Amino acid sequence: MALVARNDPLTALVPQLTQAARRRVFRAIPHRVRPAWDDRRVMLGTADHEAAPLLGRVAEQSLLTSLLDEAPARGQALVLRGEPGIGKSRLVSVTERATRDRGMAVLKTAGVHSETHLPFAGLHQLLRPVRERADELRDAQRTALDAAFGLTDDPAPGHFRIAMAALDLLSDVAADAPLLVVVEDAHWLDRATSDVLAFIARRIESDPIVLLAAIRDGYPSGLGEAGLPEHRVVGLDDATAAALLDASAPDLPAATRSRVLREAAGNPLAILELPAAVGLHDDERWAAGGVPLTDRLERAFADRVSDLPYVTRLVLLVAALSDENTVDEVLEASAAVAGTALDLDVTGPAAEAGIVDVDLRTIRFRHPLIRSAVAQNAGLEERRRVHEALAAVLVDAPDRRAWHRAALLAGEHEDIALELEQAAARARRRGALVVAVTAIRRAAELGEPSSRSRRLLAAAGLAVELGRTDVVVAVLGEVSRLDLGELDRARVTWVEETALTRPLDAARFMSVIAAAEQAGAAGDHELHVNLLWLVASRAWWVDPGPDVRRTLIDASDRLGDATAEDPRVFAVHAYADPLGHAAGVLARLSSAAADKHVDADAARFFGPAALVVGAFDLGNDLLATAIEGLRVEGRLGHLPRLLTLYAGMAARLGDWEVALAAAEEARRLAEEFMEPQWAAAADTAISLVAAMRGDTHTAELLAAQAEMVAEPAGANITMAFAQFGKVLAALATGRHADAYASADRLFDPADSAYHPAISSWLIADLAEAATHIDRVDAARARVARVEAHAGEHPGTWIALGLRHARALIADPADAGDRFDEALASDLTRWPFQRARVQLAYGQWLRRQRRVAESRAVLRAARDTFDVLGCRPWGERARRELRASGERSRSRVDDARDQLTAQELQIAQLAAQGLSNREIGEQLFLSHRTIGTHLYRVFPKLGVTSRAELNAALAPAAAPGGGLDDGR
Question: Which of 364, 530, 749, 840 is 20 to 30 Å from 573 at the Cα level?
Answer without folding.
Answer: 749
